[in-house]
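Issue 218. Parser rejects a valid record. Input:
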Amino acid sequence: MQARRCDRTPWDDGRTMSNPLTPAPAAAASPLVRAARGHPGASPPVWFMRQAGRSLPEYRALRAGTSMLDACRDPALITEITLQPVRRHCVDAAILFSDIVVPLVAVGVPIDIVPGVGPVVAHPVRTADDLAQLRPLTPADVSYVREAVRSLVSELGRVPLIGFAGAPFTLASYLVEGGPSRDHARTKALMHGDPGLWHALLGRLADIAREFLRVQIDAGANAVQLFDSWAGALSLADYDAFVLPHSRSVLEPLADAGVPRIHFGVGTGELLASMRSAGADVVGVDWRVPLDEASRRLGPGAVVQGNLDPALLLADWPVVERAVRRVVAEGRAASGHIFNLGHGVLPDTDPDVLTRVVALIHSLSDE
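Output the parser choked on:
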């Protein structure tokens, strides 16, 4: 099933393109990359976390009968699924279709993504012997990702592609708990009870995440995002002592790659400044902290991403429009703003609402 092709995309020079998926000037000069560098335009660039996914009927049709992990290892499927929301919504960036556990599976960790549950680990990591299953990741382990990124860069033209990886803490939480967790109790117990094993585990995960991002950058990704989805479960003191050094070892070495680095977590309002210090050019903010307040916490020169509450997309359009305008206004307090949600698109979201949100934000450049 094919969605309608995006027939209008505003660009910084005031012209429009009849088809944004044709070869064009480098995506490195796109509004998203410029905003990430602290050079915003008249309106913020916009993309959505989980924009390629269950809210799209064409995605559900394409994925029918194919497991999540199988889809994430098929370059043709990765390419098509990544392109679907760009065609439909006219967003200002594509994000690679993948999953944060893909590099773990690639190095031999037995993980299954169970529908309605999430990643389930057959043998949780809780001892030094368990740690042996985490060997280093090589580019050959994820050759399908490299192939898909190269294909996408060719197809997208001047629309930038964002690569991503799971952050060490979030990956560790899945590995230690054996799957999703509400309280991360085993994770925190290991963190404090055996700090030597904890730091060894996160060190290996940091190496895997950094290599996974490097593969995507080397293949042509124009920006990368490090997802630390569950870091908000930690106090600032625990984050600084047990997590920050490892997130920094992922992001800081990528500074020489020349692409913006985005760092995002949920419930991380108290951690924002530390997350920025990990080496982030852009800090993603969930819906709990207004962007102007987030900018104050982050300090001078901060660039933010976010942060419309995904649940508001289920409300009537006047509610959505007011909220979008509010987020854009609050984002002006920062040195740059990339419009996004405060977390991923909910499966019940009407795709047409997302398309209207993109059109509204693009129209703000004319106001």
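Fixed in the parser; the record now loads. The two ends are 36 Å apart (CA to CA).
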